[in-house]
Amino acid sequence: MTTDGGLPFDLSTVKTTSSKDEKPTVDSTKRIFGIKEAPTFYPTKDEFKDPLSYIEKISPEGEKYGIIKIVPPKDYKPEFSLKTENFRFKTRIQKLNSMEGETRTNVNYLEQLTKYHILTGRPVGKIPQLDKRPIDLYKLKNEVALRGGVQEVTRLKKWAEIGRILGYARKQCTSMSNALKSAYQKVILPYEIWYAKHKEDVEHIVKKEDSITSHSSSSTSDTCEICQKNENEEKLLLCDGCNRGYHMYCLTPPLTSIPKTDWYCLQCLTAVGKDYGFEDGEEYSLGDFHKVCDKFKNEWFQKTIAEKGTVSEQDCENEFWRLVENPHETCQVEYGADLHSTQHGSGFMAAEQMPKAAFDPWNLNVIPVAPQSLFTHIKTDISGMMVPWLYVGMCFSAFCWHNEDHYTYSINYMHWGETKTWYGVPGSDTAKFEDTMKKAVPELFEQQPDLLFQLVTMLSPERLLKENVNVYAVDQRPGQFVVTYPKAYHSGFNHGFNFCEAVNFAPGEWIDYGLECVKRYKEFRRQPCFSHDELLVTAAQNMKSTEEMGWLKRGLLEMQKRELKERNAIRTRRMKESVLSNSTEREELQCVFCNCYSYLSFVGCECTEKVSCLDHSAELCTCDLSSKTLYLRFTDKQLDEMTKKVINSGSNPDDWIEKVNKVLTTQPGPTMKGLRELLKEGQEANVPQENLDTLKDYIDVVDNWVTDAERVLNFKSESKSSTSKRRDQRVKDLIEKATLIGFDVPHLDQLKSYSEKLQDFTAKLTDHVLNSNDTELQMKLYLEGQQLRADSIKFNQLKNSLESCSWEEQVAKAISMPFNQKIFRKLIKDAEDLGLNDSNTPLLKRLVKMEERGRELVQRIENICKGKEKIEFHQESTILNIGEDQQNPELSIILDTNLLNRLKNAMTRSKSTLNEIEILLNQQSTKPSVMDRPSLTEAQRLMSLCRELCFKSDLVPRLSKALTQMSAWNDQVRATFMNGRQKSLETVIRESVSNVQRITTSEDKKGIWCICRKAESGLMIECDICHEWYHSSCLKVPRNVVRSSSSYICLICHPTESSKRVTHLSRQPKLEEITDLITTGELLKFRPKDYNIIVDIHNYMQDYRNRVQAFCRSRTQLGLQDIPKIKHYLRTLIGLEVSLQDETEFLRSKIQSLVPITPPSLNTNNNTVVISSSSSSSSSSSSSSSSPSSTSPSASPPYKSDSARSDTDYTATTTTTTTTTDRKLTTTVRPSYPTSSPKRRNQEIPASSKPQKIIKLTVKPPSLPIKKHGKKRQYSSEEDKHHGKKQKQLHDDAPYRSHHRL
Description:
The chain has about 1300 residues and is of the alpha+beta class. The protein is built from 43 helices and 30 strands.
């Protein structure tokens, strides 16, 4: 990193004043999300002299917004006093898309999905995309859940609707639905099913972990997180996410071996992001950080605004929220936040260094300890509250939503740099804001209930505005202050490199907010910054009676009431009590459970130095109550005396009573605000309750009168009870009541003027005017009455008369226009309101009939357009003119042009569809070749269009019947090929054609083996008779059999015993069945899917059947010289996925007759297997080539022709016996006769008494690769021991026999 070498920072390189004229505020319509601007205040020089008084003055307006900006007078330019040459600071790293709550939840969910699929061995390499952008899987999951789950969404066909919510185009409806459904089923659904099964386990583990965390200070990874034992370390499995340990047998379900892939515990799979926070960054000087900030901003905006040249504040704000809300784009910035001025220095001059002549009351080192600030009653400095904090920002660095500690005020000053944008929510909207946060990111609140206290979560103002939360914004520039109000949530971000300083303060009106916050801290077990009760007690002991003490009186009364209630509740337990003396006082005592300060009282125990508050004495320890003591700082009496002393200070009750009487008798009378202030003053002066109640009742009477007057004058909305009387009577009653109140009530003059106007207007409504035909005069009077909100009987008569005329005009207009059901219904309802009925109003009767007929016609046309009702072709012109009524022309309906156009288009589409179906059925589907006929997809497409046909046609049943035949053929294909297989039909058919093609064309190929006719691979075994090599997986030979030294006879040489081992033999379709499929398929009208593949399978198999039959008929009688060929064909027939049953049985019978094998049970004395001469000959002639040391399976097949055999192969009477340690193989060889004597060939010769041994070579294969031992992350000592044990086991393996091959 470069460094400025300790040089002072050059302030000329940054903005130290605002270059904009602050008077015109930013146009809120241009700000993102349409956020409104918070107010900006411009104090005069006189107002600017006292900061807290000025802030108190503007608070009634400022509290409505939660945040305001103050622009000082132009001559206010405090010196920047920080020693920049020594100033160095550490930053925090912020990833923007992890700060926003919904985006962080989105990113966390993607991480959960990723870990889950890695755990299952099917990692998701890339997020599924649609329309060239990643699908929002988290939002997709939520939208599917809102609609009842994936089955319900699929049943109701809601995928397209979800796609539109996710922001995809409607034109891609089908592909979009398929893509979203596929993404959900492949990526989301497996995890959601798994999570539903394990949710209770997760909650149990989290609760257990919280319990352990609260009672223990450390946790080691060699302890099982479930049983909390550190035994059986060799069975301890470490999570690849959090490094916690779990016994494999403690898991649900238990694991028997170490997973081969990365393994994650339940908490890592379900609680990603729980411990979210900002990481520490680098250490910088101001000069170094300035270079980093400028470089970052220039490079970031180089592409986006290259043509503009400069970055506007609007550009920066739009880009910030784009990055924050994008889960797939990460932008990382740094922020020098919360830097203590006690360690780094302050930008303002220290209070003790300021000369009296140049004293600056707006210096942030001075404001917290100003005389009006309640922080003067706190004994210790609190960093960030009483002592300023510094903030060094860069572009996009941000501070998340929060309100201030203890709900205090805060003030922030920008010394220099680029703009900082603030967002504020007023304290009155705090509850709505918190509800919206919990609604937006419920997963984060489940993990961290105190999330709002942690200053790590952003939420888009757009989301807040949608939930009717008021959000306001201000842009702070150099030399400007920003003030936040109690409870007001605020957040913001920086536009670039800047330097700000902030501190808290607490004027008297804050006291009620502070108590509310302390209660909230106790609820969430949050650490408070100071003791609220201690502040009140210190203020009570030190304040003078001449000072304003209203806030202190309220605070002490509440404190005394709360404390005595808690003491009385715990005293029911008969606990010992002790009053602390001054010498034994201990300060800063906090409850062990809820962390609140226990200043006035606490519970202690002999077993511990810790204490608890009175509400949580049971959580202190498990000792009996006899061991616990209630300690009091003040007795009940002392507490009462201290409270009364403050309450009784100031004015006395007699003075108050005299003051009230004087105010009420003086003219003009007091205002409502003045009366309420008198009541508040009386409560603080301990005035007798009787006098207070009298004044309160009087205020209530005046309040009710004012409310009624405002309703009559239309200042407030009318209630149902207030509209029971007519308006003129209500006005008269209010005027009479005002004379009885004897108080200068507001609005009285307005009521009198309003009453006169109503009387004058009523006088104008004579019977002559009401019965005349002077519509113009009547309308003029009607409009005048509306303005006066008149409701007299005569005015209502005039209103009904005019509205009836207006109604008739509207009806005539509606009838002449295209039919609109809403308008007709409204007119009918208006007629009911006017008191009209169809018995005496013909026009209304006609209107009702037209509405009924129009509704029926529109519904019928809709049904025809949607295909719910079918019509004949000759009815087309009638339907198009369906609105005309020939019998009663008055009831004719003018139908909407758009509706008729829809009908015409539907008819045109129907004709086009029927024409296509006719061509399909009568021309295309009659072609001689199945492959030339139209595809099933095309037929299905037309069938789907038939649902919306307008016309009746016999083509539709024909098409449906053809598709039914196709469906039946497909079922026949499935029944033929599937036979219980778990794969898809398409996969089975393609594997079958691959198998058939490979095996039927393998006859002359070299280097292929086994029934599958593939090259050497994996573990292989050799038959001791035919010496053919087989894959153990093809024959399902167990691994222990392959590696044993026992003899092995393949299913070709011993077909009656071994054929059932080959799994696919039970699933082979017969060639005759495939022939039936081809024959049936030729009758179909459409080309089935995969039909050409089935034809290829049939052609391959039919050709191969011809070859096999040709071989079987090549001789009159197959003999011993044909044994290799017979076995070759039988081997391929068994390996084929399609059965040639007759040929297979024929060749098996030939092997059994020419070279039969006698079961061991027939020769129990010597445990031998009797084999015919050709098998023995083949075994003898190939014995030398069967060893892997001399020949591999890639060499030629180990068969020799009869001409290559030596004369010694067949001797007169020879018996060969192979002796092994586990099983004996005895071969009885029959004599060989010349071909001219076929009759003697099959004659059995007695075995000779002299056996001849066949020597089997025993060789040791190359040393096997060392297997990975199970545990991925074992502890070193156990790992070495385990590793050595594995090595020894591998090296001590016995050598394999020559017929076992890896």
